[in-house]
Amino acid sequence: MIKLKLSVAVFCLAFSGISAQVKDTLAEKMMVYQLPNGGWGKHNSDKKNVDYTAKIDSKLLKIIKANDNDLATIDNNATSKEINGLIKAFQSTKNQAYLKSAEKGIQYLLSMQYENGGFPQYFPNSSIYRKQVTYNDNAMINALTVLYNVAEGKEGFEVVDPKLKEKSKEAVQKGIQCILKTQVMQNGKLSIWADQYDEITLKPEKARAFEPVSLATGESVTIVKFLMMQPVNPEIEKSIKSAVKWFDESKIVGYTYQVSRENGKAIRALSKKEGSNVWARFYDIPTNKPIFGDRDGSVKYNYDEVSEERRMGYSWYNESGTKLIESDFPKWLKKNKISE
């Protein structure tokens, strides 16, 4: 009996040792791609996009090793995607290497935040528009959502070092203040948000040639949803209500925006549809009219005047405001016992 117990104990110890070394293929790749400063890039030193489905052979590994810190970004979900993936992998494997890698990524997010609470698109790369406070493609909100989950111990982040939790709480509060400061005042009323801002003045800025200074609808929906996750105070309540009112007043009634594929190419079309509403991707700040940018830097007020390459290569309308108005906002009001 004693020998049996001893054998079982030895087996359990051996099994626990094996379990501690369980590996997740995707997480392993993410650690290889992680940059020295803790962040991740969206493309490699050879300008090709990071592809986690690709096998890392000696040739690709050489390219990855040539990646430097200037590639680190929160654009296109980079860095936040990897941190979330590593935390998920740690949950299933208990492999400490994944947790340490995620914590290094969290530290990178904390290090890139400006004192005013904003986040640049890239860090430390500050060339052209990369240093601007960036909501475009949900960059800043993705970063803040990771830090919010760290601070609150949600979505598996309860395992993170307590010191990072405290720092994340401070970062989230600074981020919220930046969000409130950057909500655009339009003709004396709070509206929504621009895609990017000057990192010093917090004034709306343009980015790429076809991304003019404007109000940005898709990203603003994501910002409002993030604010809805926070404890309510008068500033946040006013911000949310003002944004939802803007969406309701700025909708384009009776249209839908559809994307299909033909011969491998995206076909984007705005068409009439009863009972459906859309919003332009960008609205002119002074006039609140839909605007469209082109490769040559020109701004059009007519969608049909945009070059075919940009018209078919960019999403110029969305329907994201519908769920915000019809579902998310009423639920938020009810949850917080707030009158409309």
UniProtKB/TrEMBL annotation:
What InterPro entries does the annotation carry? Pectate_lyase
What keywords are assigned to this protein?
Lyase, Signal
Broadest EC class?
Answer: lyase
Signal peptide positions on this chain:
1-20
Q: Which domain of life is it from?
A: Bacteria
Query: EC?
Result: 4.2.2.2
Q: What is the protein name stated in its UniProt record?
A: Pectate lyase
